[in-house]
Amino acid sequence: RKGEVCALTGTAVPEMLIASHIKPWRDSTNEERLDPMNGLLLVAHADKLFDRHLMSFYEEQGTFKTVLHPRVRG
Question: For the whole model, what pTM was predicted?
């Protein structure tokens, strides 16, 4: 398990990490559910935000950036 870190924060505490699906489990085929490219390893609070559509990601010039919902930005 060496090297498993949150894709967003770099946190490497296993107890805080959750495998988050990019395409929701309920909307995925069995093949997509098992596809490692349909996942992100995130810390628990980031997973909650992502799962509830309060945080998203976009790519800009080869770098991924985050976008927070206005409710989260405060």
Answer: 0.77
